[in-house]
Amino acid sequence: xxxxVQHDKLDPYEAIVHHETTELESxxxxxxxxxxxxxxxFNDGEDVSAMNLDHYPGMTEKxxxxxxxxxxDGWDVMDVLVVHRVGDMYPSDPIVLVAVWSAHRAAxxxxxxxxxxxxxxxxxxxxxxxxxxxKKHWVExxxxxxxxxxxxxxxx
Amino acid sequence: MEIDVKFFASLRDRMGRTSDKVTFDKExxxxxxxxxxxxxxxxxxxxxxxxxKEYTDLSQALKxxxxxxxxxxxxxx
Lengths: 156, 77
Hints:
Order of helices and strands of chain B: EHEEHEEEE
Largest sheet of chain A: 5 strands, antiparallel
CATH topology of the domain at 2-38 and 58-124 in chain A: Aldehyde Oxidoreductase, domain 3
Shape of chain B: globular
Structural class of chain B: alpha+beta
Order of helices and strands of chain A: EHEEEHEEEHEE
CATH class of chain B: Alpha Beta
CATH architecture of chain B: Roll
Number of strands of chain A: 9
Oligomer: heterodimer
């Protein structure tokens, strides 16, 4: 399991390949499911030209790690990688990568959705958007996903 | 005892500072008492609280050196 919070630009596909070749044993996993969150150029009816993502160093990483551990404990998955950007970004920039490796696809799909949903709910990040007119405003809530119920966890 | 206080995002803008230090002339205090020291207004109902980077609530008892953070709902991912 690896969690990275970085200011640097994120190339999610390179990160997947790098993690797979350096951290996973070749030939043991049957697939990788990934979610890549990218920045939109619109939100709540306004055109958005830039965004700053704030976080709480230490607490952010700790809570992402907890969510990843829950996914590792809850499904038959081999590894989880999360890379989340902070700082200034622009439309179409990748913001977050969640990648889950497993022997079989069902566990990887469910665990990936679990990690992104609970990361969005618990990890302390805050988006501040800049509109095309130059107005700054803090995003007050994330969109919702009914998600993977905790009852789907294998231990439940 | 001394408590480190942090503010994030829109609350940081509203408070006009990123951090604060609160001192009590006693050995026990709660998060609610810390809020009363840093603001003359009641804490907005949507504000979340963490002590030493774990979510908690206003009733949590504190010890000297604890780090208390106040922030709005999170919007990552």
